[in-house]
Each structure stands twice: as C-alpha cells, then as structure tokens.
Specification:
With about 280 residues, the protein is mainly beta. It folds into two domains: about 120 residues; about 130 residues, no CATH class. The protein is built from two helices and 19 strands. The strands form four sheets. Strands 3-2-5-6-7 form a five-stranded antiparallel sheet. Strands 10, 11, 14, 18 and 19 form a five-stranded mixed sheet that branches. The chain has a five-stranded antiparallel sheet with strand order 13-12-15-16-17, with no helix packed on it.
C-alpha cells in the first residue's frame, strides 16, 4: 500500500509539473538541468572530447552531447543521478547530488521543484569541480578536468621564400601510425600542421603519410625518451615524452627555436615541436 501511495503521489506531482511546463513563463522558472563542461587540467580552458554516448544510470534514454559539454536533466523524485560519459579515450562516471524542494509559484504555474546545493564526484577518478551550486540556466555548473594528453607531437609545414621560413600546406590523403592510436586531428586534407600520436609503450614511433599532388608516401620516424612522473595528484603517475627527434625520407625537419617552451618535449594542448620542409 505504501508503494502504491508513493507512486500515486509522484505521478500527481509530475502531472502538475508538466502542466507548469506548458506555460512559457512557467518553464523559465524551472532549474532542473545541469550543464557539464570538459576542461583541460593544465589551464582550465574548454577541452574537446570525442564523446560517443551519454546515459544516466537507471534510464534508457541516451542524451545528446557536444564535444565540449553536455546537459543533464535532474530527477525531482531523487536526490542524485549517476552519469556515464562514454568517450573514445575511455568511460567517465560522474555522480551528481542535489537538494530538491517543491515550491508553489502561482495558480497559472502551479508547483515547481527547486533544485539547489549541487554536488559532484567521480568514481572513475576524474578531477571534478563545482562551478555553480544552483542548477538551471546556460552557464556551466560542473567542470570535468581531463588529465594531460601527453603523447601528441605537432609538426608545422614550412617552405623557404626569399630566405624566410613561411607557412606551407601539404595535401595529405591519409595518416597511419604503427600502433593502435586514438584519433588524432587533423589526419587528411590541405594541412599546414599535424598533431601526431607517439607510442608511450616504446621509445620509437613510425607515422606514414600518404601524400598527393604529387602522389607519394612519407615515413616519419620519431625517437624519444620516456619519463615517469606525477604532475597532478589526481592523475597519478604518468608517462611523459622528452628529447623527441624525427627523421623522414621525404621531409627535412628543423626543431623550433623558442624561449617560451622546450621544443623537444610534449605539451597539452600541443605546441609546435618541428618545422617540416618538403
């Protein structure tokens, strides 16, 4: 009997809540959504994550997500939801907690459910931060900080014009690595730069570029050192790359000379490590 009564109460409240949403002005009073954004742990800037699906534990629906953020609806019959973010790089679990209170607005709108005191944690070990404790609106409420992506080297294509090194573009039909690598961007087209993955399980990586205009194949061989260190406690010990060297049967390379960063080390987001000349 208790379960039947509880279900009936929930259905009545949901019906009243739905009636409220039929009125545009009433809808603006609701705050039952949480915006989750993806950010880089290095600088807090917005990140791009290849999201495949977003689900809430206990629900069949799959929610839409951009590669930078996702909006999660909150359940007014509970005080928390668990969100599963399936990405190319792995699965993230985010537990959202909140306080919910019914509140009578007006005869036109009826009751609404007021969400507040938002909390967030990650059983999968991600660094999660509350940006705003009150759900609703367009701003980001929760930020997920990605641990450093520490294996991408950047090449900038250059050409010599009047003894100056200027930007060049290269026609690339396809790109392949000699190990199973995550997607790297860009991989084809008329490109002026490339971010290429290096294998963290060995000290050498080969990248094959299929070039067009003219048609040929270029093999790039990278050699480097691997260093184990902890940069962020939440990320634990990671493998980092240093002293990168590259050679090719098609391109000539020149290490970038700058005082702003160490050109033969890896950064996130990637910085230019080498200039590549045809």
């Amino acid at each position: 009997m208790t379960k039947v009564r509880k279900s009936a109460v929930i259905l009545v409240l949901w019906a009243l809540f739905g009636a409220c949403l039929d009125q545009p002005d009433c809808y603006n009073l609701t705050n039952n959504t949480v915006n989750i954004s993806y950010r880089k742990i290095f600088d807090g800037a917005l990140d791009t994550v290849a999201i495949e699906s977003v689900t809430i534990v206990g629900f069949d629906s799959v929610f839409k997500s951009t590669n930078r953020a996702v909006t999660i609806p909150l359940d007014f019959t509970k005080t928390g939801v668990s969100v599963v973010l399936d990405a190319v790089e792995g699965t993230r679990l985010i537990d959202l907690g909140y306080k919910v209170q019914p509140q009578f607005v007006s005869e036109e709108c009826g009751p609404r459910f007021l969400f507040s005191e938002l909390t967030a944690s990650s059983p999968s070990g991600d660094s999660v931060r509350i940006l705003s404790g009150t759900p609703g609106g367009e701003a980001s409420h929760v930020a997920i900080y990605r641990c450093p992506r520490n294996n991408f080297v950047r090449l900038a294509f250059k050409q010599v014009v009047d003894e100056d090194n200027v930007k060049d573009t290269v026609s690339i039909a396809s790109t392949a690595a000699n190990f199973e690598a995550l997607t790297y961007y860009p991989i084809s087209g008329e490109l002026s730069y490339m971010n290429l993955p290096l294998n963290l399980n060995t000290t050498s990586t080969q990248i094959t570029l299929e070039l067009s205009n003219p048609s040929r194949v270029a093999t790039l061989t990278f050699n480097y050192d691997l260093v184990q260190k902890t940069v962020f406690q939440v990320c634990g010990e990671q493998t980092f790359i240093a002293n990168v060297q590259v050679s090719s049967d098609v391109f000539e390379f020149k290490k970038i000379e700058t005082t702003r960063y160490v050109a033969d080390s890896i950064y996130d987001p990637p910085k230019i490590n080498f200039a590549a000349f045809q």
